[in-house]
TrEMBL record:
Source organism, top-level taxon: Bacteria
Organism of derivation: Streptococcus thermophilus
Protein name: Uncharacterized protein
Length: 39
């Protein structure tokens, strides 16, 4: 059950991209440990 919930929540959260030293980096809206602890 927790894998299904984890996959669902991960798909609902946004990812932000920013330019760092000429390359785009992707940063999740919330770190996984933060929302996984809430489950």
């Amino acid at each position: 059950m927790s894998t299904k919930v984890r996959d669902f929540v991960r798909n609902q959260l946004r990812e932000f991209q920013y330019l760092d030293d000429g390359q785009f980096k992707t940063l999740p809206e919330y770190p996984e440990f933060a929302w996984f602890e809430g489950m």
